[in-house]
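#dry-run=false #mode=assembly
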Amino acid sequence: MPGPAPYGPSERTTPTRARHRASYDRELVHAILDEGWVCHLGYIRDGAPVVLPTIYARVGERLYLHGSTGSRPLRETEESGTGLPVCVTVTHVDGVVLARSAFHHSVNYRSVVVHGTARSVLGEEERAAALDALVDQAVPGRSQDARPANAKELAATSVISVDLREVSAKVRSGGPNDEPGDLALPHWSGVLPVSTTRGTPQPAADLAPSVTVPAYLTQG
Amino acid sequence: MPGPAPYGPSERTTPTRARHRASYDRELVHAILDEGWVCHLGYIRDGAPVVLPTIYARVGERLYLHGSTGSRPLRETEESGTGLPVCVTVTHVDGVVLARSAFHHSVNYRSVVVHGTARSVLGEEERAAALDALVDQAVPGRSQDARPANAKELAATSVISVDLREVSAKVRSGGPNDEPGDLALPHWSGVLPVSTTRGTPQPAADLAPSVTVPAYLTQG
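#status=ok
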């Protein structure tokens, strides 16, 4: 069975460099997005770029972002009804690539860049579902084991959505690409793997000893 | 002895939310920058924001960035002599903060946001030093154990500099801040630590067995 259709490339999702590393494959994009939960959100404020880290969740072909970071500029543009042009980037660093030459040093990574328009999620039902998704993107299963937001908390939380339309992934993997003339040099070459890991859950100081660590924090 | 003077806050480095987490402390900013080596570079292209991951190095009060990602828009602005307005953000995620309520879930993190103007590093001496710094930021000590760039490679590498002037750090640490009324709920609360670790160096397939793993890859 063929996979889903890829994202259509656009002028700005076509890299000028290392084009062979770019992909518009929908399953690859989803996999990279689903492995992360913190993105870098870019927007323009007073004519200058702003890049802030924030949490996100993917639900189908839509990203939800915790909106506190982008809510002020978003509000400003929403008065005009146009939404806020944004770029959302998710990056996983997998390794440092050490070549014999300084020039061929590189990084193994997987990234997704989303160009789009951010809009405030105003509907209460969509907002509540998005908040669950944000919690579950960080810790799968957690949203069902926490007190849901009450009306006051829901009203105090801003959520932003960005549709996945203009999207590309970029992947670099494997060892160094040394010059043939450098292979006999005495310098070590290869890859220093880098990974993000989760440690032992640290209970809150005021947590009752009877509340044990849930399985979703220790598995997977 | 007092520490160095802090960065002066500006309108755009003053957060509208969680101001108590913002800092302009120079030593804190340097420490956060020095712990990383991959940043997210934001700039404006054709009126829209672009955010791309790239490597960086801090040398005193200047950041150097590998310029391949930003070189095209930078070249365009350099014809006008003004440089490219950028935002450079470095983020370390330290943990997922799980509260009894969905609303009080949070992230422990340390980030630095640099607003400034990117310029191409054109001087050969500064460019060569910046390239060494980029390699050493990822793997301290490595630049002295690799073949230096030759004239052709140097000419093919673009390096961008951004001065550290308009800079702020933001830090969230510690456990969840639950509502007093939620403390008796049966949900686990605390922090799930997140860290970035380096694994066992993987030699290149064509590395001679006589070349052993250097100490700078296995220590620290």
